[in-house]
Amino acid sequence: MRLCFLVEENYRHDGMPNEVVRQLTAWGHRVEVLRPGGSLLRMCDLVQAGEHDAWVLKTVSGGPGLTLLEAAAAAGMTTVNDARSIRGVRDKALAAAIGRGRGLPLPPTYAAARPELLAQIPASEYPLVVKPADGSSGRAVHLVSSPERLAAVLPELTGEGMLVAQPYVPNSGIDIKVYAVGGELFATERRSPLHPDRAVPERLVPLSAEIAEIAARVGAVYGLDLYGLDVLLGPDGPVVVDVNDFPSFRQVPDAAARVARAVLGLARTGSSGGPGVSGSSGASVGAVASGASGGAGVPGGSGVPGGPGGALARGAAGLPVAIPLQATAHGSVDATVTATPSAAGAGTGAGAAVAAAGDGA
């Protein structure tokens, strides 16, 4: 297959996606890497239908790569993730509206085009977490305890563009990061950026039935195939505080090979479609929890129940089907997890189950 990777300057030396590119090349696929932030681009010639089987984007929020990906999508080419889906999560204000509207457990969200407008938020909503709507990697995230404290940080927010503010979710200082790749779910825990003094080693952890269901729904609601989500365990249950397209997949076993296989599968079958279009078909998505060692703790192959990670199984017609959920550490859970896939991409839901594709053939 011939693939085009759009890699922003921030990621040109990162393991993800460079290791994926090396893996695909080793399997004999042709991979072209474009760095849109460091090249003069002749747009009328760059995107030509049929030259690549799929375009893959690894970019920062607001980077020029998304423009190229949208151009490829407009020309009828497959993009990973779907360009509309990426746009739907890159804007955190838009992502909050889509997610809350579809019943995902996201905190209430205020949006303001200018920092001083945040002063209108009622005092009862404090403490607040304030961050740029297009932020990434913890940039300009502030935990604001009171209206007086907000006034003190407003100068630091000048120039950040659209801002979002959300009531702080009380938690232990640990973020749970869930990664979805090739139809599998993996969970890690790490220190919250709002609690820098908390010593928390980043590691794989078991994935509960409740969080697995939420993670599957996130992929379906936003139309994402490769994605990650940050979850806090609040006093009223799990809360999703961020969604990322094409994350780092840190701690995921054999991440480069898993992502490479997923990209190949999506290049063959297409992505899930844009955000906000799921919720009507009634089909279900199954998820199996990953164990602390990265596998499900029971015999089985990748991409099937009992294999590494959480597999989103597919029925004979290509639609997702419900499968049992089993935790593999700290006790066990028996449950059936269901969620609604994208109507624009039935059969891909939270990612096509391609992890059993061997070495990418």
Molecular structure report:
This protein is of the alpha+beta class. The protein contains eight helices and 15 strands. A five-stranded antiparallel sheet has the order 11-10-9-12-13. Strand 3 (54-58), helix 3 (65-74) and strand 4 form a beta-alpha-beta unit. It starts with a strand and ends in a 25-residue tail after the last strand.
Keywords:
361 residues; alpha+beta; 5-stranded antiparallel β-sheet; 23% helix
Summarize this entry quickly:
It is built from eight helices and 15 strands. Helices cover 23% and strands 21% of the residues.
Q: What overall form do the CA principal axes indicate?
A: globular
Report the major sheet. 5 strands, antiparallel
Q: In whole angstroms, how far apart are the ends?
A: 10 Å
**Low-confidence blocks of residues:** 277-359
How many helix segments? Answer: 8
Strand order of the largest sheet: 11-10-9-12-13
| Radius of gyration from the alpha-carbon trace, in angstroms | 20 Å
How many beta strands in the DSSP annotation? 15
Q: Please report which band the strand proportion falls in: under 5%, 5-15%, 15-25%, 25-35%, 35-45% or over 45%.
A: 15-25%
SSE ordering: EHEHEHEHHEEEHEEEEHEEHEE
- Average the pLDDT over all residues and give the rounded result: 77
Which structural class best describes the helix and strand composition?
A: alpha+beta
